[in-house]
Structures are given as structure tokens and as C-alpha cells.
Amino acid sequence: MSNPMYILGISCFYHDAAACLLKDGEIVAAASEERFTRKKHDAELPRSAIRYCLSHAHITPKDLAYVGFYDKPFVKFERIILTSIATFPRSYVAFSTAIPIWLRQKLWIPDIIRKELGYEGEVLFADHHESHAASGFLVSPFKEAAILTVDGVGEWTTSAYGVGRDNKLELFNEIRFPHSLGLLYSAFTHYLGFKVNSAEYKVMGLAPYGQPKYYDLIMDKLVKAKDDGSFKVNMKHMAYDRTLAMTDWRFERLFGAPRREPESKLEQRHMDIAMSIQRVTEDIMLKMTRYLHAQTGLTNLCMAGGVALNCVANGRILRETPFKNIFVQPAAGDAGGAVGVATFLYHTVLGHERKFTWKNAYLGPEFSGEDIRNYLVSHDIKFHELDRAELLRRTAKLIDEQNVVGWFQGRMEFGPRALGSRSILADARNPKNKDVVNLKIKHRESFRPFAPTVLADRSPEYFDMECASPYMLLVAPVRENKRIIPSVTHVDGSARIQTVTRDENPLYYDLISEFYKLTGVPVIINTSFNVRGEPIVCTPHDAYLCFMRTDMEYLVMDHFLLDKREMKPLGKDIDWQKEFELD
Ligand SMILES: [Fe+2]
Question: Which residues line ion ligand 1, judged by CB < 5 Å?
């Protein structure tokens, strides 16, 4: 038998650096760099993620057939130069800040990769949106599908329409910079006092508290959307094509007030603006997907790019367009570009048939029971060792008794959501848990809703949604007669759902089944295992620190149970609220 073909995909130097390893077309490992360096959205060359991918497969860089990079730095460089010239001299500051980084680092990507990895083979590049499109389609369950990619910006493209068939994909239309739905959304994220490229989901979470009072203003003055799915952003009110800021005084004049100071009080106005831009985004996405359907006649849709993480829009596309099936993989943003370029090389460039379908998000590092026992013993941490049945029974009971439980099991998730490997769990029936978990555990804003995990087979009883939502990327209404899970039901009666099957995650599924047996409710709160501003925990040590620094009552790691009351206080702890910059 011939040796397997390994391809390493890398995305980095913008935000959310990640690495992905393919073995004969199958994703064997993928992870974001931030989890290892503990620096949220870390954009550096993903050295640790690469090291992890290679060690997981027991290979060295010499075993790699190819390394793929997820976009084309020269074309992006051209865009920055041309845009800067077009908007000179207003662009001078942004230009002179960006250029040295480009010259020093980004244009030398193949050299940097070869040198850092000790790799001597070829480094190949895909277009940014080709990578997104591949990351959506080539790992999907569909032989044939329409493809839509939507993000801030790649090289020039901000959105692409395409079709995937077998191992080929064709992008037949695009929208180009500066017209960008992602950047438009980010401009509002910035104006509302949140962090760009990081806190867009807060705008989405804030929206249901508001009314779409600014909808017409946005559609009149800021963005012109046509029925053919194309749109133009009016750059007269925008700043992102010429400065480092997303918005300036012209945008503020349009909305009649300055940008909200970060961390200051959220007023009704802010919520109305959030609702307005969210609605505009959804409506444009609906136009885009209807156009795509009319052009292709297909009923399967694959989406990728940062905007594909807008699960409210995704839910509406499923309900309101002719598309019957939607696939969005869990790392739909730029981290997923690492998967995209690797699969693009393997299938589309090298012509290999597709055999692999994305099965679950558990592609990151794992720690065995022995690893965890060694960690606990060597740190003199008290624990209870339980067999599987007892572990499930005890944990379900603890949640029913209104404890908040850290849940650390198996391989870490790839993508921004915790899906039952690195999660914090609590009882969704208790209305107080929204505040308890937001404020006491995660130290984050109280308006942020929590998402439920539901047993997939019970999901239709609780939610008005026929299909599965394994990656928490669809929002659907909670059924009227099931409004008994208030801490995961948003003010507008919706929920951002994770469905779980036993195949996807047996231990997690069995835990929720146990809770169901105990309480009659097959739903729990699942939020990511981290505090505000911190990347999701990766190692047992990260988990233990997060557990000790918050009011979480119990921590379950593998088959070990830790009780906060039995813990010795942390020795001299660093000031973690300073360690993690607020997101
Ligand atoms: Fe992107």
C-alpha cells in the first residue's frame, strides 16, 4: 500500500489563525491557534496548531505532500495599494501602518512557512473565497449544491456565488470591495461599542431587544440592495476604505449620535440600531440566496465566510427560501479557510474523489483519563473517580440541583462554539440561570442569551425546526407550549439550537438523556468553557484555572469529578481579569 497523502492547510495573518491536516482527504485534526496561545483571535502563524496537527498524526513536516495557504497575499496587497491610492491622502495613516507589516511578513508567507516548519516542499495558495467555498462544499454531505460565501473581505471579493459538483467548484459571480455585507455589519458592531471581528454575535444577540427603527435609513442611505442579490454600500458615510477605523463622524452624523463608548450603558437606541442592521443583513442574505437558487435551480445550499455564522439569518434562509438543505460547517469563518484550502488542493486541484463528509466538530486535542489523573495528582487537587454510569447520573443530578458544571471531555471543538467537549452546563428551566451564568460565571454582559443543547430526536417537540443543527448555527422559535426553558429562550421567543445525536457525541448525548429521565426535559444550557475575553479552554490546566476563578460549583474532567468546596484556593494567581482583554 502506498503512503497516505498528507496536506496541511493554514489560515493566518488576518484574524483567527488555524491549521488543518488532511490524510487522504479526511480531516484528521484541526484547531485554532488562540486555544494554545490563550490569545483570543490570535492571527500569528499557527505554530502550536500546526505542531498539534502533525503530532496527532505522528508525522513530521517532511511527510507533508503540500502546504496550502488560504488566500493570496499579493492580490490582497494590490487591493490595499489601489484602495489607498484612490482615497489618498485620507488613507495615509492606515496605509503607512499597514504597509510595513505587509512587507515584513505577509508577502513572505511561503518563506516564513518553510523556515518555521522546516518544510521544503511547495506552498500553494487558493483565493480567499475559493477557500471559503471549498470549506463549505467539499466536506458537505451533498454531491451537488449551490454555494454562497459572505464575509468582510478576502483579496477583492466580499461575497461569491457558486456551484459545487463532485470534486469541482465553480464561482460564477461575486461582489467586490468596498461593497461588503461583513464590513457593513462590522461597522455597526464598532459603532455600537463592540469589538470588530470578534463581537459581531453580540449585535445579533442584542437585536431582539430592539425595533427595526433605522431599517429604512440604512436601506436608503447606506446600502442599496437589488433583487438580483447584488448590493452597493454608500462609501460617503463609511470609513473602512480609507482609515483603520470602521466608522467616523459621517456615520455618527447619519445616526445623530456619537459611537457608544465600550462598556457604557446600552440604551434602547442601541438595541434598535442592532435590530435594524440585523434585519437588513437578513433581508440582503435572503435576496442573495433567492438569486442563487434562481440561477442554479438547486435545493442544497452550502455557506461559508464570517457572515454565515449569523445563525438568525441562516434560520430565515431555511424557512423563507426554496433551499431545502443547508450545510454550514462549524468553523465557517476564516479559521475554516485552513480546511478550505487543504480540501481544494486535494480534490479540485489534484482531482481526488470525495469520500469524506464532515461528521462532527471534535477535531482538536484530547487528554486521556491517565493524563488528567496525572495532572490532578501532581497538582494535589482532590477528585472523585466515578464509573461511566455513576458519572452521568451524578452530573445530571447536580445540574437538576441547580449547580453550574464545567464539562471537559474528549477532543476539543474546531470553530467558535463549544459543543459538549469544552462546555459549561446548567439547567435551562431556571430563569435565574441566565444572570447567574452570565454574571457570576462568565463575567459577561447580562443581555447575552444562552444556547440550548437538545437531544436531536426530541428537538422538534421543543423547537419549530425540522432539520438538525449540530453546530449551533441555526436559530428557530421555541414552541409556545414548551416555554419552560426560559434561560435559553431569547426575548423574541427564539433559541440558537445545538441538536446532538448519540453518534456525534455518545457521552454528551447520554448525559442529557440522563437529565431527561430525571426531569422530563431533554434540554440543557450549553455555553463555552471560558470567561469573557478568554479563548475556550484547551487543556486540563486551562479548565481547572477557569473553574477556580469563577463561581462554577463542579468540574467534570473525563471520569473525574471536582467539588469546589473541596478545593484549596489557588496559590498566588495572576490577575486574570487583566490577562484576558475584554472582548
Ligand atoms: Fe473570510
Answer: 151, 334
